[in-house]
Design a protein that fits this description.
By secondary structure, the chain is mainly α. The protein contains ten helices and four strands, in the order ααααββαββααααα. Helix 2 (38-61) packs antiparallel against helix 4 (89-101) and helix 2 (38-61) packs across helix 6.
């Protein structure tokens, strides 16, 4: 069942990736999650970053990383780290999509190494993507009535797992906080911007120059950001 769900998931993921990156799936007849295309290369890098955050949380709480629940104890070497990654992989996937959509990364930032038939990321491009990952992991989510950084949520969930294993709590829930992917450049937002007249914009406190900039961005296929205050003025 997990395999069938994954196949559907990656087909949908593929549909929003430009064809020039030659991404087919995470698993195909040619490879299994190897860096044989730029998208898989970036996903692997993102997952490695997530793995380091999960490993740090596990070590901080004092759990044994070699004993897992979802992944076999023999392989991989630290299955609990991979277990903890599962609820948070989406952060890396959203960041990868954003990197390609926004133009932060392009084909020129990847080079093919003939010796191992894998793509590698240019150093400067890797630095830019790392900054994007840090920004995503530092973004806030609502959890238990408070606003937490996603990086902190990983630690909190690890602590909850530790209390459950020690019998200090009866349940452990990894479905909360539920992932929410909100885009400021949604189709509704683009339509609102393009239909907005200068008179209407002035009435809600948006200057002529800001409106012109928003319109130019809304016409492009690339993703763009709309500041929170502008979103509020536009009714989002």
């Amino acid at each position: 069942m997990e395999g069938r769900v994954a196949e559907t998931y990656w087909k949908i993921f593929q549909s929003v990736i430009p064809k020039k990156y030659e991404f087919s799936s995470r698993i195909s007849q040619k490879h299994q999650m190897n860096s044989t295309d730029p998208v898989n290369t970036l996903l692997n890098y993102g997952y490695a970053f997530l793995e380091s955050r999960c490993r740090a949380s596990i070590n901080s709480v004092g759990l044994e990383p070699s004993i897992g629940f979802l992944h076999e104890t023999v392989q991989p070497k630290y299955p609990l780290v991979y277990d903890l990654q599962e609820p948070f992989r989406w952060i890396c996937e959203v960041a990868s999509l954003e990197a390609f959509e926004s133009g932060l990364l392009d084909l020129k930032d990847f080079y093919f190494h003939g010796d191992d038939y894998r793509y590698h990321i240019d150093f400067e491009a890797k630095r830019r993507f790392l900054e994007l990952l840090k920004e995503r992991f530092n973004s806030g989510v609502r959890y238990k009535g408070k606003s937490w950084k996603l990086d902190t949520v990983i630690l909190k969930k690890t602590e909850e797992l530790g209390r459950f294993l020690l019998g200090k709590s009866e349940t452990v829930d990894f479905t909360e906080p539920t992932p929410k992917v909100m885009r400021s450049d949604s189709l509704e937002m683009r339509k609102r911007i393009l239909e907005l007249t200068q008179k209407q914009a002035q009435k809600i406190g948006i200057s002529k120059s800001t409106l012109n900039c928003l319109r130019e961005n809304a016409k492009e296929n690339k993703s763009f950001k709309v500041y929170a205050k502008i979103c509020e003025k536009l009714g989002f």
